[in-house]
Specification:
single chain; about 200 residues; alpha+beta; four-stranded mixed sheet; 5 helices; 4 strands
């Protein structure tokens, strides 16, 4: 290839040409993301936990929720997860709301071999929860949530116990996320109605 070919660009290889194309694609992707962001802002979308969410009131309202004791070991874990999400700075001194949760755990063994040994199980955690306004003891919100996690039943008991514990942990974390989100959405709507 001669020097004149390099200066005119005739000697370019395909990778250099595709780099320009990916730059254009990247620009188009950024424009599309920006357009989507502006569209969401125009339709009244507000982040639930951010500063823009109802003037930052939702996280403040969540911190006013007193979370009652929940029976059993899984209930204890669920309460701790809810406290981490709703009251990260500690339990409220003067709560405005009370959240009560009733948790039921069931295990169903599945996957039966010919010798009638079980190889798989489903662990189901079902939570009925309600939010009460403590100023007048009025029921504000009542709902339920459910999580199912599967795990293998091994020949070694320790492996089975470990797998069941991991399934329980996943279910508890999922329930805590869902309950927190649903209570936050309710409190967000309630604060929006007041304005």
């Amino acid at each position: 290839m001669s020097l004149s070919d390099e200066s005119t660009g005739l000697g370019r290889s395909a990778p250099h040409q595709s780099a320009g194309c990916s730059g254009r694609r990247r620009c188009l992707a950024l424009v599309a993301i920006a357009y989507a962001g502006f569209s969401l802002a125009a339709c009244g979308y507000r982040p639930l936990y951010g500063r823009a969410a109802a003037g930052g009131q939702v996280s403040g309202e969540l911190s006013k929720v007193r979370i009652g004791l929940i029976a059993n070991r899984a209930g204890h874990r669920l309460r701790n997860q809810l406290l981490d999400r709703m009251n990260p700075r500690g339990e409220p001194v003067s709560p405005a709301y009370a959240l009560t949760v009733n948790l039921v755990e069931t295990r169903v063994d599945l996957g039966v071999r010919r010798d009638e040994t079980r190889t798989r199980a489903n662990l189901t955690l079902a939570a009925d929860f309600q939010l009460v306004d403590l100023s007048n003891n009025r029921l504000l919100f009542k709902a339920n949530a459910r999580r199912v996690a599967s795990f293998n039943i091994r020949d070694a008991d320790f492996a089975t116990i470990t797998a069941e514990s991991a399934a329980r942990r996943r279910s508890v974390e999922g329930l805590a996320d869902e309950i927190t989100q649903r209570v936050a959405i309710y409190l967000n709507r309630k604060s929006a109605e007041k304005r």
